[in-house]
Design goal:
This protein is an alpha+beta fold. It contains two helices and three strands. The protein has a three-stranded antiparallel beta sheet with strand order 1-2-3. 18% of the residues are buried.
């Protein structure tokens, strides 16, 4: 995936994360730091957060990335375990 596409998808991913947090679906704030292609129609959204480091997304270009990412996030949130609120430990800052 060209870096330009990742740069276009990252703000869409962040918008979804912000909405999920605002709607109390996501119990903590996350920052989408990077979107990478990991295979044909397979992408990973990286957060660099100890509570949830990344989410894999299967996305075809004829689909809405935001819709597909939101569905992937909701599914992943349902599978989280352990304490989900509070500060993350071991955050890695991306520069």
């Amino acid at each position: 995936m060209p870096k330009a596409l990742g740069a276009l998808l990252r703000p869409q991913a962040q918008s979804v994360l912000d909405k999920l947090f605002k709607d109390h679906v996501l119990p903590f704030e996350l920052t989408a730091t990077k979107v990478e292609c990991i295979g044909p129609n397979e992408y990973i959204v990286r957060f660099y957060d100890s509570r949830l480091r990344s989410v894999d997304v299967s996305w075809k270009k004829d689909q809405s990335f935001a819709d597909v990412f939101q569905a992937a996030m909701v599914d992943r949130i349902k599978r989280l375990s352990g304490p989900l609120t509070g500060r993350a430990r071991g955050n890695v800052s991306s520069t």
